[in-house]
Amino acid sequence: MRLIKLASLSLLSAMLTLGGAAAQQKTVRIATEGAYAPWNFTGAGGKLEGFEIDLANDLCGRMKVKCEIVAQDWDGIIPALNAKKYDAIMASMTITDERKKVIDFTIPYAHTPSAFLAAKNSPLAKMPGTGQTFNFATQQAAAEKAINDVKPLLKGTSVGVQVSTIQANFADKYLKDVAEIREYKTTEQHDLDLSAGRIDAVFAGVGQIMGTLEKPEFKDYSIVGPSLTGGVLGAGIAVGLRKDETDLKKMFDEAIQAAVKDGTVKTLSMKWFKTDVTPQS
């Protein structure tokens, strides 16, 4: 009888332990913009979709946590993180020195350069450097020459950028002396003005531009001039976290590293961009 009682108590203890573990499964709230296709966007029925939505769910599975993804306007996404409205940001956010002053970042899960998008029949289609990529971090002289070479064609034009982005910072530093820089709340808004002829070009991330070029109304547009990265354009796209979240950062870093190593990031890249945005070591 004593043995039966002990066995029953052991079984009950195990059940309570398992039940408690399930009940205590950590929920990680992840914010995304929901308006930056194909990285993240709001699809039919208001459902969030895109590369980062798929990747976020994959990473949460690896971390063995429940994933809750919420939409947040871009211009308030960092303040809301630090106000603890959610735990992490996955919104095509590039690592920059300025952002590192207020939040922390994981290792990069993607990397794409920035470039100009313009109509194929516009004077900007003749920009030198088309098809070439320059890195301000490792090729500063060549990158600065590349941007100086396109300035004559940009003189007197209007260029759209999304507010509070690395592209806006780049335009402020390198282009405001030759072109009118117009800032937009979302990339969808500057794409609309471009297709309507209200601006001459947009300067945006190549990943986002690839999504734009999939739309029928942009069949007569293309990437023009050099593609640029590094410097004020940052050092890769990563998960944004509060500075005190060291354990969560470790979990994300390990999950991202595994997703890169086993080819998941590449597979999702090809699905959403038709090109590999896996960060190169």
TrEMBL record:
Main localization, broad class: periplasm
SMART domains, per database record: PBPb (SM00062)
Compartment annotation: Periplasm
Organism domain of life: Bacteria
The keyword ATP-binding is annotated on this UniProt entry: no
Signal sequence range: 1-23
InterPro entries, A to Z: Lys_Arg_Orn-bd (IPR005768), Solute-binding_3/MltF_N (IPR001638)
Domain Solute-binding protein family 3/N-terminal: 27-276
Pfam family, one: SBP_bac_3
Keywords: Periplasm, Signal, Transport
GO-annotated cellular components: outer membrane-bounded periplasmic space
Protein family (similarity comment): Belongs to the bacterial solute-binding protein 3 family.
Stored NCBIfam families: 3A0103s03R
Protein name (database record): Nopaline-binding periplasmic protein
